[in-house]
Amino acid sequence: MSKHFPAPSFEKKIVSGERLREAVQRLPRPIVMTNGVFDILHRGHVTYLAQAATLGASLVVAVNSDASVRMLGKGDDRPVNREEDRAAVLAALESVSLVTIFSDKVPLEPIAAVRPDIYVKGGDYEVEDLPEARLVASWGGRSCTIAFEFERSTTALLKKIRGGAEK
Ligand SMILES: Nc1ncnc2c1ncn2[C@@H]1O[C@H](COP(=O)(O)OP(=O)(O)OP(=O)(O)O)[C@@H](O)[C@H]1O
Ligand SMILES: O=P(O)(O)O[C@@H]1O[C@H]([C@H](O)CO)[C@@H](O)[C@H](O)[C@@H]1O
Fold it and tell me: Which ranges form a coiled coil (predicted)?
């Protein structure tokens, strides 16, 4: 007979858009926030999230819904991992305090609900180009990018798995 386990405690870090505003009230500040697809988690992602977490006392991650990933044009076969799985993997990370799934192309709604002190993206973005940064600035928050330490990507991993040339 196999033992029955309760749901792992990290599942409690996943909150719906409706519960986000209230859940954030319980987090220590300053709050750092980021967003992304995080389809197949790799070393670049986990390093980036650990570094982002050091910028404040809590890290909130907004993860794209499957429908919003399809709006980004990453390919007909993306995402590989469905939204609830991507959210669970992120929630299991020590660096991550809260995870929410968002449905729009740009995560302005969850950012407005969280009102982070610091908004962060990876070094593949420029702060000046981000509508999220303009929103966060409206309540006095700041935004920054974190340079890549490891050149990794989900797209490159998929190419490798599927027999492409990536190492
Ligand atoms: N190698 C990396 N190092 C640091 N940060 C990264 C790296 N890859 C992605 N990021 C950051 O992680 C977040 C999620 O990125 P994303 O899901 O687009 O990763 P990806 O592996 O580049 O995916 P894809 O290949 O599907 O575009 C973004 O904020 C991005 O800037
Ligand atoms: O994982 P990605 O592709 O880095 O995440 C995207 O980031 C976009 C970014 O915040 C610029 O607006 C966002 O709009 C998009 O929905 C993905 O989260």
Answer: none
Task: Please name the residue that has the structure tokens 């007909």.
Answer: 76
Task: Output the DSSP codes for 68-86.
Answer: HHHHTTS-TT--SS-HHHH
Is there a contact between 14 and 100 (Cβ–Cβ < 8 Å)? Answer: yes
Do 82 and 10 meet the contact criterion of CB atoms below 8 Å apart?
no
**pLDDT value at residue 123:** 97
User: Ligand 1 mean position to 3 CA, how many Å?
Assistant: 37
pLDDT over threshold 60, residue 166: no
- Count CA atoms closer than 13 A to 31's CA, side-chain side: 22
Q: Report residues whose beta carbon is within 6 angstroms of any ligand 2 atom.
A: 35-37, 64, 68, 72, 105-107, 121, 130, 132
Residues 63 and 90 sit within 8 Å (Cβ to Cβ): yes
* Residue 163: predicted pLDDT: 87
Q: Which atom of ligand 2 is nearest to the CA of 124?
A: 4
Token couple for 154: 């989900």
